[in-house]
Amino acid sequence: MIGKTLEVLGELCIGYLATRVHSRVVKERRIDGPVLREMRMEKHVGTIGIALIIIGFGLEVFFSL
User: Fold this and answer.
1) How far apart, in whole angstroms, are the C-alpha atoms of residue 12 and residue 5?
2) Both ends of the chain: CA-CA distance in Å?
3) What's the pTM value of the predicted model, to 2 decimals?
4) Number of H helices, E strands in the chain
5) Which residues, 6 or more positions from 5, have their beta carbon under 8 angstroms from its beta carbon?
6) Could you report the per-residue pLDDT of 41-63, keeping only the tens digit for each?
7) What's the angle, vertex CA 13, arms to CA 11 and CA 15, rounded to 5?
8) Domain ranges of the chain
9) Which of 8, 36, 40, 65 is the Cys-Cys partner for 57 at CB 3.0 to 4.6 Å?
């Protein structure tokens, strides 16, 4: 269980950093419109992915008890 916990924490860190980078680039607006739209979409998909990782981990812990 410790290994799975560390794996999930690592995935969450990577996901969080990716969404932060996308937010920073979108705020700076040094990229053209189509790229900014794509980055916004990637940020939303990344946020959903992070939520799914948390839900999946919670379900795994709940059902392993």
Assistant:
1) 11
2) 11
3) 0.76
4) 2, 0
5) 57
6) 888 888 898 999 999 899 988 88
7) 70
8) 2-64
9) 8
